[in-house]
Design brief:
Chains A, B: InterPro entries: Glyco_transf_92. The structure is a homodimer of 495-residue chains. Chain A has 11 helices and 28 strands. With 495 residues, chain A is of the alpha+beta class. In chain A, strands 13, 14, 15, 16, 17, 18, 21, 24 and 25 form a 9-stranded mixed sheet that branches. A 5-stranded antiparallel sheet of chain A has the order 1-12-11-7-8, with no helix packed on it. The longest helix of chain A has 42 residues. The radius of gyration of chain A is 35 Å and the shape is globular.
Chain lengths: 495, 495
């Protein structure tokens, strides 16, 4: 029996061991398999092999190398050339010819500098920016627009961008470009607008894909584009203000025009360095009343275009406020709009309603010689437009026109008028509306009057002038208006 | 005993199960731990987290995204701005002002396009390339040169690059730039020359560091720069050849000038598309004899400069062969150099030895009207310069001068002469050396003669011409020379 007793344990141990062994073998196999799989998966991304580039790698890199470029968004698509070093720049061909190569480094001018993009209808957008001037003169850059709906069930749509060079002939390193992106059909609200800008390099096709607009869902009401009701009747789009401007002149200009254009008007000024602290103080009361908006555009100074990129700036203003105003005015802060006494701005604009655009004739005023009819002391205290009352009668008035447009019909603003609009343009409005130009008065920080006269006709520096008190005559009304509207906060403003 | 027998199995089963359980539990734990670790390791690279960039990432990406840039060599140093998306392009400041931003994308014009760099002495180098034209007109690009010796015990040295704009006023998108890098003291042979090119962006300082020259150890013998002995007496640097050139005209030109300049001369031609197969065939015998070298510069067409970047090309030629020739000539392949019969090119050049440069006056020939003195059949078989023997006597000869230089004194070539050289320039060599210009003859692929005359004076299209057989008279000698030198290989050459 003892044997029996002894036999059993042995058998059982064998059984036990074999069972464990079999069991753990299976585990080992599974475990080894997993080890191999995970190890491969772990090492794969670090192997610099030539497997095709996945989107994730792409974004991963872009996010680190594109200078001022949003993450995951700008890509330059091209055939990658083989690497060259200084010593590999040439080779001798079989026929003895020395094959030379040329390698480009860095960027002297960006392909596109994005300022803004705005929806302009159910299926159309405008992109405003700068691009290399000689590229547009000698090269063949092109633009393609892509709308990527936020709704993943909707496919992106693409269309050819229509390029408008609004300051043609004026650019320096950069020229202003407005790209009109009109899609074949309605683009649902909510999405990203991508501008694909191609330089047209004959050898390689360099394309930058630029996210120019991100439209949140339900952020747009399409009735905006059809409704005749606008937030403002008149909106002023100023061009780039720069230099050491006179606070007093700016004070006079804004007071005059806020009164002139009335309650339902708004003024957009662009600060390229000209709205220094003292100038900002004369604007502050009007900003607080919601009559003035200032855009700080100083950063554009980095990009050398025409006069502080004024064409880009006014085109941004056009498209930004395009459906917020019935009429938009484009003139400078040394210019004063005027309508005959029997008229009002309202009556005049109603009479011009059939036109998409009209140009405004200049009345050139001297900003040196002044009318002293009120006596020297009073003259000194007078506002600029009260004393600078002599009009240059020699200067050709047709020169240097300014203009107003019904912006919903306009696709881009231009030099002295828009050349990209639908509808009629009127050039004979001089009997209804004009502007008085005090050239150079805004940028001198001192008493403007260099010489005083009180005759109705004077000749100064061999140039004939006549006394024209048109603007002077409303001086009191403007001062009173300012006092009533913002009080005496600006009384101590300096020249 | 039966009980006993029955008890055992139960105990043993319990033991067995528990053992297996414990064992497999441990395995499970290890296995789960490994699973977690490897899963993390696997997913890590794909998580767009903001861990800092390692060099390997850097190279990994650069090699995929920098356009024509050698790996690890070009870096654009700048402060990286915070990422922006389309919606973050503006913000409202405390005072109500809307702060606008501007974002640049891509490259419309490279900061610098490197063609070549050559050592020009014990401590001086020349770098030849292209750069954005408006950048140089409106901007303030600058260049710094750095010499990095291969010998690690020697420190790199740095100097300001002197920029020469040799085609000032002629560029389009690109202009030719020659950067003279002269270091304060001798730069030991063997090293890398790095050109640091800065665009001068007022906001950011974008600098591209470009490896322009790799000089192997012991690859230069400094006596080269001081020795009066040169490989050639006369070297011709041709400008960019393009268009559908006439093989026969090129055949005539090269035969004439190889004979004219003699044994110790060499001809460097630059193919911008003009040396097509038929033209190459007329050059091949001379290439095989080592009298002609052709550089294929077609790749420069990608970069839109003045006339196929001819100024870059001739400056490359100047610096490449600067110490290989006593004199260098710059003129075109429709122009034939001539010295009076009593002189030889050798005697003339010796008489001009005191000058670093002299200009050559033009004799404008008609490439339409021909001299038929040999009778129509013979005239037809004549070479171009044998029959185009009528000289325009109205055209102002001073126009369109060509020139020759002693290159060791010259730092850059120019339009119709070099303006960057040391030593005297002579403009009154017309009695010693002239060139006959058959304008337009080279680029028409047909019999040039449109009208035949045999008078000594003719008026054609209201313009007076005189018979001038200066070049015509050497026709037989040139043909004989060609036959003797390369045999009859070119007999069947077509217009």
């Amino acid at each position: 029996m003892v044997k029996d007793k002894e036999q059993h344990p042995i058998k059982e141990k064998k059984l036990l061991v074999s069972l464990i062994w079999n069991f753990s073998t299976e585990l080992k196999l599974i475990f080894m398999a997993l080890l191999v799989i995970f190890t491969l998966a772990t090492l794969l991304p670090f192997i610099p092999s030539s497997f095709s580039l996945s989107t994730s790698d792409f974004r991963f890199c872009i996010s680190r190398f594109s200078s001022a470029v949003p993450v995951n968004t700008t890509t330059t698509t091209e055939v990658l050339p083989e690497k060259k070093t200084a010593t590999e720049l040439e080779r001798v061909l079989a026929n003895g010819v020395i094959k030379r190569t040329f390698t480009g480094y860095g960027s002297a001018a960006y392909n596109f500098i994005s300022m803004s993009a705005y929806r302009g209808g159910v299926n159309t957008f405008a992109v405003i920016g700068l691009s290399s001037k000689p590229l547009h003169v000698y090269g063949h850059p092109s633009y393609r627009c892509e709308w990527v709906p936020l709704d993943p069930t909707q496919d992106p749509v693409s269309t050819l961008g229509f390029k408008i060079l609004t300051d043609w002939g004026y650019g320096r390193i950069y020229t202003t470009v407005v790209v009109n992106c009109t899609f074949p059909s309605t683009t649902a609200v909510g999405g990203n607008l991508i501008l694909h800008a191609t330089t047209g390099d004959p050898d390689r096709n360099l394309t930058d894909s630029i996210p120019v607009l991100t439209e949140p869902p339900n952020s747009v009401d399409f009735t905006l584009y059809s409704s005749p009701k606008k937030k403002y009747d008149y909106l002023y789009c100023g061009s780039s203000l720069y230099g050491n401007l006179s606070p007093q002149r700016v004070r006079e200009w804004i007071a005059y025009h806020v009164r002139f254009f009335g309650e339902r008007s708004h003024f957009v000024l662009h600060d390229a360095g000209g709205i220094h602290d003292e100038v900002f103080e004369v604007l502050r009361p009007w900003i607080e009343l919601g009559r003035v908006t200032v855009h700080d555009i100083r950063e554009q100074e980095r990009f050398d275009g025409y006069y502080h990129n004024q064409f880009m700036v006014v085109n941004d203003c056009l498209h930004r406020y395009r459906f917020a105003a019935k009429w938009m005015f484009f003139f400078d802060v040394d210019e004063f709009i005027y309508v005959p006494e029997k008229e009002t701005i309202k009556s005049v604009m109603e009479s011009l309603e059939e036109y998409s655009q009209f140009t405004i004739e200049q009345m050139p005023m001297s900003s040196k010689i002044c009318y002293s009819g009120d006596g020297p002391a009073r003259t000194y205290r007078n506002w600029g437009f009260e004393k600078m009352a002599y009009r240059d009668v020699k200067k050709v008035p047709r020169r240097d026109r300014k203009y107003a447009v019904q912006p919903s019909n306009v696709f881009a603003t231009g030099v002295h008028m828009s050349q990209n609009l639908q509808g009629k343009t009127y050039h004979k409005a001089e009997s209804k509306i004009r502007y008085f130009h005090y050239h150079g008065s805004i940028s001198q920080r001192r008493e403007p009057c260099r010489h005083l006269f009180n005759d109705s006709r004077v000749v100064f520096e061999n140039n004939p002038y006549v006394l024209d008190t048109t603007i002077r005559d409303v001086g009191l009304a403007v001062k009173t208006f300012e006092m009533r509207t913002i009080g005496n906060r600006l009384l101590r403003t300096r020249q």
